[in-house]
Amino acid sequence: MINLSALKSQFKDKPVAVLGLGRSGLSVFEACKAAGIQTVLWDDGENMRKAAIDKGAVVEDFTNGDWARFACLCVAPGIPLTHPAPHPAIAAAQKHGVEILGDMELFHRAMPGARTIGITGTNGKSTTTALIGHIIKSAGIDVAVGGNIGEAVLGLPDLGAGGLYVLELSSYQLDLMTGFCPDISLLLNISPDHLDRHGGMEGYMAAKERIFRGKGIGVIGIDDDGSAAIFARQRKEGQRRMTPVSCLRPMTQGVFVSAEGELFDGPHGVVDLNTCPALKGRHNWQNAALAYTACRAAGVDTPSIAKGLQSFPGLEHRQKIVTSLHGVTYINDSKATNDDAAAVALSTYSPIYWIAGGQDKGGGYEKCEKHLGHVRHAFLIGTAEDVLAAWLDKHKKPYTRCGTLDKAVEAAHAMAQKDALDHAAVLLSPACASFDQFKSFEQRGDAFNDAVRRVTAYTKEAEKKGGHA
Length: 469
Fold this sequence. Notes:
By secondary structure, the chain is of the alpha/beta class. The chain has three domains: 10-101, NAD(P)-binding Rossmann-like Domain (Rossmann fold, 3-Layer(aba) Sandwich); 108-311, Mur-like, catalytic domain (UDP-N-acetylmuramoyl-L-alanine:D-glutamate ligase), CATH 3.40.1190; 320-464, Mur ligase, C-terminal domain (Protein-Tyrosine Phosphatase, Chain A), CATH 3.90.190. It has 17 helices and 19 strands. It has a nine-stranded mixed beta sheet, with helices on both faces. A six-stranded mixed beta sheet has the order 14-15-19-16-17-18, sandwiched between helices. A four-stranded parallel beta sheet has the order 2-1-3-4. Strand 9, helix 10 (225-237) and strand 10 form a beta-alpha-beta unit.
């Protein structure tokens, strides 16, 4: 756990108000408690409040209370800060001049000398963050990985002077960072997402660009127009030493991946990414190139990075191979909760028995449309069934309404095994949120894994008995 003791005197023994009692909010409570800093907690959800009370927390609705008693308001990233409207507690804190921040800012103020790598982007953040952590750990350097992935930042261990924190940062977290700027900052890509929380694309891009405030090193994937514009602006401002990364064009100065999958640092070859089993597809080539650039900036030598890329096991729920049976590969991409992320998976495999659906985000499926030629048949689940069915009808693509994930896995498995096509994939890449039927994309992915293991085991058992599955 991060030691917040240094903040006690800064806060003049005033309590910290904590809004939102999910993973990050509870970690703030625990870290403050360990440091002897008082907290007062609130969440609009009754169950969340009860869980905090059970942990010994002081819970009260401080929205219309005495704000002069608080040192600051620490807000969970999921709480609306500005759009579509600020949470009432945030509006009240602003009215009374109380500082609003997030757990990342508390981490920075408690450990201002900590070495940090920050990763943001619309797609690929978690894979790139995990990949960087894996490479650095493999190189023998003390590392802790967290933030928007895995452990909340205040729950990470105190690594001391020699350690390195690798932090995935969402746009929500970046909005709450007032002074913290990572030493090495990465922007992977930008495409429309969370626009309701940022007031449109301009606000979303501004939130992402906040990762480059202050001095240090900047790394940007320049293959989309938005990121290329941010790179040009940041290079002109000159606060950070900027490195461009591309998977579409060679560069004499910068890091790029050739059409064949060879990673280059300027004119120098680094590694053939085709030798990295968990990094298939151009999207993963971009993740690898950005991870390489960050690790070089952190002082890891090139041979160690190449070994780390080759030994990376992949990230759970992100194009993770569950198993293979009779030439059909079963792939868990439950983390693909939007059009862009699912399109990446659809572009990587063919033919695909595609399990899609969940809670529709309202943004359409234009990116997925470009790769429907890879889809043999779609299996639809969740409340998005009607929207997806109408869209697939428009494009004359066959589908089956399955309703639930277990039924979709059974139907996709049966069809894929019967067709027996070369290089076929049963792919869960929903292009939708999970909250209509699951608590999280992780729970949805776990359910997919379980269903796949069940149907493939049944098939194997039936074949042993000489029957038919």
